[in-house]
Write a structure and sequence with these properties.
mainly alpha
Length: about 110
């Protein structure tokens, strides 16, 4: 997308990458700051996508935590952590290039 400003590309990248460190807080802040700005459509979409993915991960962590009682959770936690790391980096790279990124699995709760 050539009509996306470099600032929006950078903020989109930060929305995705902040999920690695801050969970859903980073994308939530970026989305809340920009959600009413009509000229930030691409950035809003990327922030919502990152937020939805991080919410999905919170749900996955809860399920894995419950499954710790049957030891399956111990296998799921590292998989979730690695998936978060890899997918957020891939999304950040795409966003920095101004490309739309959709996570392969995410509950799209924020429309």
């Amino acid at each position: 997308m050539s009509d996306v400003s470099q600032d929006d590309k950078t903020m989109g990248m930060i929305a995705h990458l902040s999920g690695i460190v801050a969970g859903f807080i980073g994308p939530l802040v970026i989305w809340l700051i920009n959600k009413d700005k009509t000229d930030k459509g691409w950035l809003i979409g990327q922030a919502k996508e990152a937020l939805n993915f991080q919410i999905t991960l919170v749900i996955a962590y809860i399920i894995a935590g419950v499954l710790m009682f049957v030891l399956i959770g111990m296998l799921l936690i590292p998989i979730i952590v690695i998936a978060n790391l890899v997918l957020c980096i891939m999304a950040g790279m795409k966003a920095n290039n101004g490309e739309d990124y959709r996570y392969p699995f995410a509950l799209r709760l924020i429309k």
